[in-house]
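FAQ: What does a ligand-bound record look like?

Like this one, built around pyridoxal-5'-phosphate:
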Amino acid sequence: MSFLASNYKRRNLSFKKGKGSYLFSTSGKKYLDFLSGIAVNTLGHSNPRLIKALNAQAKKVWHVSNSFQIPEGEILAKKLAKKTFADKVIFVNSGAEANETAIKIARRYFYSIGKPYKNRILCIKNSFHGRTLANIFASGSKKMTEGFGPKVNGFDHFNYSDLNSLRKKVTKNTAGIFFETAMGESGIKVHTKKFLREVKKICIEKNILLILDEVQCGIGRSGKFFAYEYAKVKPDIVPIAKGIGGGFPIGAVLMTKKVSNCMVPGTHGSTYGGNPLAMAIGNVIMDEVFKKGFLNNVRKNSKYFLGKLNSLKNKYPKIIKEIRGIGLLIGIQVSVDLENFINKLTQNKLLTIRAAENVVRILPPLNVKKKEIDIALKILNKVCSEY
Ligand SMILES: *Cc1c(COP(=O)(O)O)cnc(C)c1O
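The answer part, i.e. the structure of the complex:
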């Protein structure tokens, strides 16, 4: 009997250690980890630089609270600002918290410039932004909100990739258009550059903030540091989490100076957000992801992987319906039972995770080796051939 509540459907598998792209189970088996704790373990398991930074900081100071200056956080915020659109950063602890903070900032911005009626957030129907109350109602998903009423107001929804639907939902009350630059949980759906540019145009025209959730697709997952870079659009607010901590819980909201001015003392806070231990780790992730060739290598491996997966699709058209993805955020939409397919992969020592629309999500660590991708392809081929 477990004393853990039953809000997760857990696989009957546990691990005693991890190294690079591999996890070793308590029963002594070796698994290729191609879900990376859901796009979290950017540098795989037991990365020596992360271990070193964690240990070094652990011996100095873990936590002091945001009543004080935190030099490690100043450094990380500067790194994030130098490499992105952002001028200012607020640190939090998770993706859901980063998204809630982003929503607060958008509303507070319009309040601060004398337009408090601009307070509605326009999101994609059946999207995913985390599990807190505001975020589940932002998702416009019946399944996620069922039984959790009363409804949190202030969210409108448009249909995925549908600019006409979006235009119809914009009103004078719209403060922000808020969606994932490349959608993970909802089925690995990548917006076209054209879509992103058109949305940006609407935002400029109607004085609306563009809020891009890069919690899953950010931090190099897409092959660029941020997925929006492909379209060369400039967002106003970008919540991040997952990959920036490499396994340590870190969230952050990046924003322009214009928007950040409204966040005066007292408007937001988080006890743990940006503590020295978290910041020491985030700094290593940033240094590694921006090492020469790192992101280039993600793109190279992505091209190789996606190419081979498309060949596999052509070989097994009755099993694989579509290959989706950008960078190392990859989806295989299958025509067979999803859970069964994922279980078969697990039995063959390849760990993946589901996404909506009957999609197998593949999220290797960003420093995955080509030969590990080849092993995964071999397992995928074997599982497909056994149907
Ligand atoms: C995972 C995820 C979240 C929620 O992050 P948590 O850290 O679980 O709160 C929000 N948005 C997106 C796009 C995500 O993938």
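Follow-up question: can I read anything off the structure? Yes, for example: The two ends are 35 Å apart (CA to CA).
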